[in-house]
Amino acid sequence: MTSSIQIRKRYEVVLQKMIVEAIRFQLGID
């Protein structure tokens, strides 16, 4: 039984990883 809090926490972690990857990508281009 998954609570909405766990789902949101997991979503935040995925979102953070995507942001970090995007920043690395931009820094790599520059």
Notes on the structure:
- 87% of the residues lie in helices and 0% in strands.
- With 30 residues, the protein is mainly α.
What is the overall silhouette?
rod-shaped
**Share of residues in strands:** under 5%
Largest sheet: none
Integer count of domains:
1
Specify the oligomeric state: single chain
Helicity range: over 70%
Rg, Å, rounded: 13 Å
- Show unreliable segments: none
Tell me the total number of β-strands: 0
Euclidean distance between termini CA atoms: 45 Å
Task: List its traits.
30 residues, rod-shaped, mainly alpha
Please specify the SSE layout and strand pairing:
Layout: H1 4-29
Quick overview:
The protein has one helix spanning 4-29.
